[in-house]
Predict the 3D structure of the following.
Amino acid sequence: MLQPNKEKRTVLYLKKIKEQGEKLSAITAYDFPTAKIASEAGIDLILVGDSLGMVIQGEKDTLKVTLDEIVYHTRLVSRSNTLSMVVSDMPFHSYHVSIEKTLENAIRCVKEGGAEAVKLEGGRKRFKMIEAILNIEIPVLGHLGLTPQSIHRLGGFKVQGKKREVAREILEDAIELEKLGVFALVLESIPLELARKITESVKIPTIGIGAGRFCDGQILVFHDLVGLTSLYFPKFVRKYADLNGIIQEALKQYIHDIQTGSFPGDDESYHLQKDIDAFIK
Ligand code: KIV
């Protein structure tokens, strides 16, 4: 395995990765220890995703996540002084009402959370909001294809861009988002041929999740990647560890050790000094 490089990941770094034809790595994280591990492993970008609604809060979708929650989790992540670039995922309702509200919310992600960029879902319907955020010097990560905040309109978590009209719209939106100035694009659940076309059509990096191997980078939800959930796994997830199984085994052993009296042992306990020992007896 390659030794992770120690360069701080920034928008310029990510751009350079694409120019050099290298691939970038991204995961979600929602807390300090995970962010620290990710940074030390060499992950380029950490997204404090609104997927936290599902993997942390146990909701069936991402819609109930609030801006306060994203700001809070971003603060936990950014406190790890990570080399990875930290991006706050702006939740549903935080950039849909007015430009003013959108700007206030994006600013909170940076000022209170410590984010280095924000992510917004959607294409043409969101251009105005994205442009306004870019104009106040906050970098924006775009997100096209399956946009989970639109599941009610889309009719569920479904692959997008299989039909010509929708594929064209996604491609046009990608090109326009690059013109607006987003620094990278998440492409979620689209056919790999469409992801390839988009990746070849823009100079900014594309980061795929369920979008095949031609993207400039990949992102996965941390809990899926390390098997820390026993929930449903989409086809595109590769499980690199079974933390659920490992933790189950550890907890069963712990229960066993308590019940058999082997935990805590003498060396896991505090002892009185000898003279006081005599006094207690
Ligand atoms: O919220 C999230 O975790 C995301 C990724 C799946 C891209 O948006």
